[in-house]
Specification:
This protein has 338 residues and is of the alpha/beta class. The chain is built from 14 helices and 14 strands. 46% of the residues are buried. Belongs to the gluconeogenesis factor family.
């Protein structure tokens, strides 16, 4: 009887990342009967987010905005307004989204990004929890294989050099980098922790290079899943296959912590790659099953492709179904971590 009651609770799924891939998965995962927590990168320094980050010396809002929208249950028109991006001759407005401005305003009103996001989750009827990875903006640093360095998430890929490793610091460097409140407890109390999909060096690693998040990923009893990217990215992952992506994660954290690799084996049509309008993406990430098995205990491989006129995406519904099944089967009696 006790086991039956245990099995009926919602599996706790924590998703960590940023960029455009994460909202695709969250939007589909929202429809599952799961307790979802999204932990979102705070190292972005480009575009509207970068301008607002510098203006307010605050956490960049863009990735948080996209996650809030993906998990929101407000009417479509309200989501469209939240995501609307100004195209204006006024330099003060051009390129900014309404959502970015709202998040920045609420952070200014309440004095910190954590309180602002928690209030917005209520106002936007978010199904789940959204936490910034840290409560202050972080600088992302890269060291390339040739020994040179670069600081700035938006600048790192533009060097066109092979990245050896990345790290993060607070903008005010004398302070240690710390995870936002409730982030560590969410990881420790999860049934499943999901990394990605997203840019390996600039969307995923900025989160797990926060020391207490990296430690939590090693220590948690939850299964850790890595969703491999579909395409290689200019200035980040040229020539890296799916096993290489996992090796990079393990190298940065200092040990093997990924339990499951979810990887696409569907073939992106060659003529589609040739007409790919987003020049950031290069070629399809190659599948190395043998290499993955040397890094992780379990590999989930399938055709996870969704091809649109604009780009190549993961099929959110198929990925969410695999994540939910894995989380449900991984449920455990949780010792509450405070």
């Amino acid at each position: 009887m006790r086991e039956e009651t245990f099995k009926k609770r919602k599996p706790k799924i924590v998703v960590i990342g940023g960029g455009t891939g994460l909202p695709v998965i969250l939007k589909s995962l929202k429809e599952k009967d799961a307790d979802i927590t999204a932990i979102v990168t705070v190292a972005d320094d480009g575009g509207s987010s970068g301008v607002l980050r510098r203006s307010f010396n605050a956490v960049p809002p863009g990735d948080l905005r996209n996650v809030l929208t993906a998990l929101s249950e407000i009417p479509e028109l309200q989501r469209e307004i939240f995501q609307y991006r100004f195209k204006s001759d006024d330099r003060n407005l051009d390129g900014h989204t309404i959502g970015n401005l709202i998040i920045s305003a609420m952070t200014d009103m309440h004095g910190n990004i954590y309180e602002a996001i928690q209030l917005l989750t209520k106002l936007m009827r978010v199904r789940g929890h959204v936490f910034p990875a840290a409560e202050e903006p972080l600088n992302l640093h890269a060291q390339y294989v040739d020994g040179s360095t670069q600081t700035g998430e938006s600048k790192i890929p533009k060097k066109g050099k092979k990245i050896d490793k990345v790290s993060v610091t607070c903008v005010e460097k004398e302070r240690p980098v710390k995870a936002s409140r409730k982030v560590i407890s969410a990881i420790m109390n999860a049934d499943l922790v999901v990394l990605g999909p997203g840019s390996l060096f600039t969307s995923i690693l900025p989160n797990i290079m926060i020391p207490d998040i990296g430690d939590a990923l090693i220590e948690t009893e939850a299964k850790v899943v890595y969703i491999s990217n579909i395409m290689t990215q200019l200035g980040e992952t040229e020539e890296l296959n799916d096993a290489d992506h996992v090796r990079v994660l393990h190298k940065h954290v200092g040990g093997k912590f990924v339990d499951i690799a979810l990887t696409n084996i569907g073939i992106v049509p060659e003529d589609y790659i040739e007409q790919e309008i987003n020049e950031e993406y290069l070629l399809q990430v190659e599948h190395d099953f043998k290499g993955l098995k040397a890094e992780v205990p379990m590999v989930i491989s399938d055709d996870f492709l969704l091809l649109t006129e604009k780009s190549v995406y993961h099929n959110g519904e198929k990925v969410a179904e695999e994540i939910f099944k894995t989380a449900f089967n991984s449920q455990r009696k949780i010792k509450k971590y405070l």
